[in-house]
């Protein structure tokens, strides 16, 4: 039984090229657990149970250069206020979703607080067991696909915050170090993540690794 369970897990994990020709695994679906890589910096969207020392004081969200950190996994859910979408339901370009941090079960969130480094709009993780508010809602903007088509895991995308219309963003010039975060800072070397009003390469993302559940048909 353990061998079977491990084989199933391995088959779903890593988004390897073995599935490039499998349409069932090309679409991001509800329940999938994914890592999102920023086009410009190559850093992955990240969080852990460390609170912001300013702004909202909520759980911090950053980006990290490590590709192996399990704290960079986010689970795809239906938007706040909607019933839970069944696992394997395809996510469409233009859909509004939530991204729940796998380890802490808080949702990717934004609001009108200022971020600690750039003074842009703060991004945090918020809620208990995935329950939060409309600040957790993000619109999937696919760069090279029509609204209503499936979110392809290889596609470049932006996440537009539904409440404030700003884009999930990270920039290499806004990095935490001992000077701006202190000698015992747990996020040294990581980049600030914010919501930013203008479109550019710093707010373009793509799925890098994770577990994709096959699309329901």
From TrEMBL:
InterPro entries: MIR_dom_sf, MIR_motif
Residue segments, region Disordered: 50-69
Protein name: MIR domain-containing protein
Keyword annotations from UniProtKB, A to Z: Repeat, Signal
Superkingdom of the organism of origin: Eukaryota
Cleaved signal peptide residues: 1-18
Organism, as annotated: Palpitomonas bilix
Ranges for domain MIR: 25-79, 88-143, 148-210
